[in-house]
Amino acid sequence: MTGVRYDLRFPFIVAALLVVGLMTVSTAALAPRVSPGIFSKQLLGVGLSILPIGLLWWAGRDRIYRAAPWVYGFSLLLQLSTFVIGKDVNGQQNWIVIGPLQFQPLELLKLSLIMMLPTVMKDGYRGLRSYVPPLAVFLPAVGLVVTQDFGGAMVLSVMFLAMLLVYRMPTWHVLLALLAIGVAFPTVLFPHLKPYQQSRLTIFVDPYKDARGAGYQVIQSTIAVGSGGMMGKGYKKGTQSHNGFVPEAHTDFAFATWAEEQGLVGGVAVLLLYGGLIWGLAGMASGSPRLQDQILFAGVLGQVGFQAIENIGAALSMLPLTGITLPLISYGLSSLVMTLTTLALAYVVYRDRFDKMI
Question: In this predicted model, what pLDDT tens digit does every residue of 322-357 receive, in sequence order?
Fold first, then answer.
């Protein structure tokens, strides 16, 4: 991508994943206990995303970075407000409900961190004190999220780690951080999780030990994926999802819904699309001369890449079930709008990567 101002491959891949998402949501709407109006809301999400994308396109790279502190501060206040006015949705009181619409402030918080962290990390690692500004930005955000949404906190943490890797920190610091996480999670964090959270994180190892309980969702998901065979059952012809066997067929297990109807070929196609998206973001990073922009691309890559890998891995019983949505495919108004906005942010910054070089 080096030297190219507009690379049409990136928006094409995004559009292709959007089509997959709309097809998946439309067929998941046929399942029992799923609102038939979710397809219309998903289309509404595509329409609503035009406004922030247009704003980013007009603003350009420099205005985006100048606005970062304001967006970050607002997102923190919005996330904090969920402790007071947040509504319980699927057992998590971290949603703001306005009439028929639901908004999850976490999605805006992800975007704000991707904007804010590069502004305090643009000079690169210059000693231990260099960690103070990024930690001062990251810790308040993850602290507000971790008690309400452990999966969301995981996404924020992976984003931050991806940015730190581009921050040019010493390799031994990376290894030390990974060691600390490896020790702290099973000994400090895991024992303090709620029982249902603990079971969701471990049941993928052997879901059949609690086939009617914690393992039910994963088992049904793998059955749906396997029943799709090579070519799938056909669009809107899935039986596992339409008969209600696959829980959350439009969100957590959207990949299982897609794979049942489109088979191994369709599943591999989705993996290739995500691979192309990640490759494109990596190309943007390598083709940008400024460290600040490279850190931003790393944050976007960390978010989208981790969510895709975690969601698909959970659907295949290869990774823990954390409730993380599949970017651009899972149903969710706030998730879709913010994901499209985040990808547009990366595209605009890449567009302006050579502008106003000092």
Answer: 889 999 999 989 999 999 999 999 999 999 998 875
Could you tell me which of 285, 327, 279, 335 has the C-alpha nearest to residue 306? 327
The residue among 302, 227, 290 whose CA lies nearest residue 263 is: 227
Query: Can you state the angle between helices 9-28 and 38-48, rounded to 10 degrees?
Result: 160
The reply to whether 14 falls in a domain is: yes
Beta strands 101-103 and 92-98 are antiparallel
| pLDDT tens-place string over residues 37-49 | 899 999 999 999 9
Could you tell me if residue 84 is inside a domain? yes
CA distance 115 to 282: 17
Q: How many domains does the chain have?
A: 1
Distance in angstroms (rounded) separating the CA atoms of residues 240 and 257: 8
Per the structure, the complete domain to which residue 226 belongs is given by: 9-351
Which pTM does this prediction carry? 0.92
- pLDDT tens readout for residues 66-100: 999 999 999 999 999 888 877 776 666 778 877 76
- 356 lies in some domain: no
- Is residue 26 domain-resident? yes
